[in-house]
Q: What sequence folds into this?
């Protein structure tokens, strides 16, 4: 159950979505860009520092409140939520978990104040589900490092002020390191801008890194800790994607509910027909299931839920379960919403086709669902072997 404060923050996020996001979503989708002002407005309410401690200017929200707010913002627009999720999720987590005091002091206050966005540059064209095979390199040079390579599908990649870049400093998975890279560093260039199926307003770019010099203190964590940092950061990241998915699903459900009440065929509103009732009930059930799982994992992250003897690997498996359940609930719900709208649902003039396009992305990024199922299965097998 959410506390009064959590409900208040959720209400504030919903209100913001209703007033400042929803009226513009169609335009942003068509223009394939989010305006700078939306991030300024979000920053004024603290939504760019949701997980940052108060000492660094953030709201210091617990995971439950953060995810509840993120869902309400995704209900407004999934592209806005994706930007926020990367910024508040994996990048902030990596800084909090692995940053030195100096790194935290340098980066957390401007991130929380919304001076600029953050981006997470792990994937490469040939290293998506298997980031341990990434090829970008960082080689020692004088008092620092020189980065070379190409990073693919970087959300916020052009407008961000801070890039968390993963590059190879040695062989294998243990040879990957993480770097805090100011976006304006010479040698970083947008070499491709992707045209996506959905989440069209979200910025997805390919970044070229050519002879990018970084001082020694740009490394986050120790040499070779990059893979662990990325996986740790993606734990909260995947919960963010679960919340984003729930926002999409909730929006699709509400649109379908309203439309089926207004649309008449055979002399009755659609939602009087058993076939439509069944769909609406199914949507409500899947959303509630996925939300319950997401909030259960969030409570565990907050330390007030879940069996306390669980290992971090179990947390990763549960996070993966929540992301899979929520993204599939979003895709399925959006599909059903399009079906309930009938021919109108297939038209660009109505919101549900956009939600369906947006939902598809959630099944792919921050761990494609097939790969996350493998993670869950491995954990389950290990757990059952341990129980024997
Ligand atoms: C809109 C968008 C935004 C993104 N933003 C970012 C970002 O900000 N930062 C970033 O680093 N990355 C980002 N990504 C990249 C994303 O994380 C990857 O696309 C994702 O991890 C999948 O990698 P891939 O595309 O290379 O697919 P592949 O790894 O080639 O996989 C293709 C298919 O095969 C399946 N598959 C792969 N391996 C296995 C296996 N062992 N068993 C069974 N099935 C398997 C996958 O599940 C998938 O269905 C973004 C992607 C998109 C679409």
A:
């Amino acid at each position: 159950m959410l506390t009064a404060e959590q409900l208040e923050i959720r209400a504030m996020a919903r209100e913001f979505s209703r007033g400042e996001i929803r009226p513009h979503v169609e335009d942003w989708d068509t223009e394939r860009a989010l305006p700078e002002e939306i991030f300024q407005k979000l920053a004024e309410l603290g939504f760019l520092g949701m997980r940052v401690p108060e000492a660094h200017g953030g709201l210091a929200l617990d995971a439950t409140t953060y995810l509840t707010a993120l869902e309400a913002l995704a209900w407004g627009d999934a592209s806005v939520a994706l930007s926020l999720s990367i910024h508040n999720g994996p990048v902030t987590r990596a800084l909090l978990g692995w940053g030195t005091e100096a790194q935290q002091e340098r980066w957390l206050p401007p991130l929380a104040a919304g001076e600029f966005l953050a981006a997470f540059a792990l994937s490469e064209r040939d290293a998506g589900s298997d980031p341990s095979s990434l090829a970008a390199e960082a080689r020692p040079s004088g008092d620092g490092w020189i980065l070379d390579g190409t990073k693919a599908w970087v959300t916020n990649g052009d407008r961000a002020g801070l890039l968390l870049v993963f590059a190879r400093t040695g062989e294998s998975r243990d040879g990957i390191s993480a770097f805090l890279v100011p976006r304006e560093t010479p040698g970083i260039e947008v070499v491709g801008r992707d045209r996506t199926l959905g989440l069209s307003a979200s910025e997805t770019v390919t970044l070229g890194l050519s002879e990018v010099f970084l001082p020694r203190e740009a490394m986050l964590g120790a040499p070779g800790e990059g893979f662990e940092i990325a996986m740790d950061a993606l734990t909260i990241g995947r919960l963010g994607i679960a919340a984003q998915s729930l926002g999409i699903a909730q929006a699709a459900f509400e649109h379908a509910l309203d439309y089926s009440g207004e649309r008449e065929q055979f002399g009755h509103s659609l939602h009087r027909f058993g076939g439509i009732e069944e769909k609406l009930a199914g949507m409500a059930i899947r959303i509630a299931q996925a939300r319950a799982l997401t909030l259960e994992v969030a409570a565990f992250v907050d330390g007030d839920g879940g069996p306390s003897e669980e290992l971090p690997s179990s947390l990763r498996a549960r996070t993966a379960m929540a992301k899979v359940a929520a993204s599939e609930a979003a895709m399925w719900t959006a599909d059903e919403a399009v079906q309930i709208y009938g021919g109108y649902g297939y038209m660009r003039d109505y919101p549900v086709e956009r939600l369906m396009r947006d939902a598809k992305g959630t099944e792919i990024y921050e761990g494609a669902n097939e790969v996350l199922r493998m993670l869950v299965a491995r954990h389950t097998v290990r757990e059952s072997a341990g129980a024997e």
Summary: The chain has a mean pLDDT of 96. Residues 86, 120-123, 128-129, 153-155, 196, 199, 204, 361, 364-366, 368, 370-371, 374 surround flavin-adenine dinucleotide (CB under 6 Å). The CA atoms of residues 327 and 363 lie 5 Å apart. The radius of gyration is 21 Å.
